[in-house]
Amino acid sequence: MTPAANAEKMLVVSGLETRFNTSRGPVAAVRDVNIEVGRGEIVGLVGESGSGKSVTGLSLMGLIDAPGEITGGRILLNGEDLRSVGGKRLRQLRGDRIAMIFQDPMMTLNPVLRIDTQMIEAIRAHDRKISREAARQRCRDALGLVGIPSPDERLLAYPHEFSGGMRQRVAIAIAMLNNPDIIIADEPTTALDVTIQAQILAEMQKLCRQRGTALIWVTHDLTVVAGLADRVYVMYAGSVVEQGPVDALLDRPIHPYTDGLIRSIPSHNEPGRPLHQIPGMTPALDRMPQGCRFHPRCARRTEGCLSEIPLMDFGGGRRARCIHPLVEG
């Protein structure tokens, strides 16, 4: 795919930091995260469990509650800083200009309300002037866009009457209802079988291209990103350690952690050989190593890795936080 490098920037995140207050004091779950997403562009946010990718998504939506707090950085949506706007303005933007799809669709759907009630409310929350019939027609169209047959019948159903895959399609339809500028999808297909997953990925890709909607796809699965995204951000221990166009990053990773993730994919292992594993464990938030956070697990580490390492430019839109890169800049 061709990265949308020159596309209009819908979202620009700079220096994002999110902390949580714990019994051992405040810890940074996300630190110095910088992300840019253009109109119609699909960006993958990749990392192991605990890397900070879901916290990043929730931070962008303004959904971090106590004991968590966004303590630094800017989140610009079409030039408007979401950190500086009031709660009322943020509620106006959320679900309208910026939307989120969760891994569990029941975090979006109310089990005791019919689908039409929930979808119409999602529209009228941002457009009180629209009639119920016009809103219902928009709901029908949205269900059709995500491949749900017999939308009139389905609108009268309750969430428990849908399969897991169908519920997730409804959640995606709700996110698309108000034609948002950007959607953040937090591993929404992880619990689905591969056939349904492939269908939903294809539909999301098509919808983004047709409508110009920007998409951040949060996942631990590099195989999903390979077929979906234009660009990729790789997170480790709360920070972005590498970013770049999807094909270049997957073919020639710069950071040893990215290389380890790619080589851990089962299809990259020879038949009969043990699966490759990255040695060690992701560090606890309150016990982060000095300097490069990956160095305790890295075979290329030296004393220089004990110093703070910034994201460095390697050309071609590629950046990495490493002084011993696998690819020279």
Summarize the structure in words.
Helix content is 29%, strand content 24%. The protein is an alpha/beta fold and 329 residues long. The protein has two domains: 1-97 and 181-282, P-loop containing nucleotide triphosphate hydrolases (Rossmann fold, 3-Layer(aba) Sandwich); 110-179, no CATH class. The protein has an eight-stranded mixed sheet, sandwiched between helices. A four-stranded antiparallel sheet has the order 2-1-4-5. α3 crosses α4 and α4 (132-145) packs across α6 (164-176). Residues 1-6 have low confidence and may be disordered.
Mind sketching the topology for me?
Blueprint: E1 9-22, E2 25-38, E3 42-46, H1 53-61, E4 68-77, E5 80-81, H2 87-93, E6 98-101, H3 115-124, H4 132-145, H5 151-155, H6 164-176, E7 182-186, H7 194-211, E8 214-219, H8 222-228, E9 231-236, E10 239-245, H9 246-251, H10 256-263, E11 312-315, E12 318-320
Helix pairs in contact: 3-4, 4-6
**Domains, number:** 2
- Across the major sheet, the strand order is 6-7-8-3-9-10-12-11
Determine and state the CATH class of the largest domain.
Answer: Alpha Beta
Strand content: 15-25%
Helix-residue proportion: 25-40%
- Overall number of strands: 12
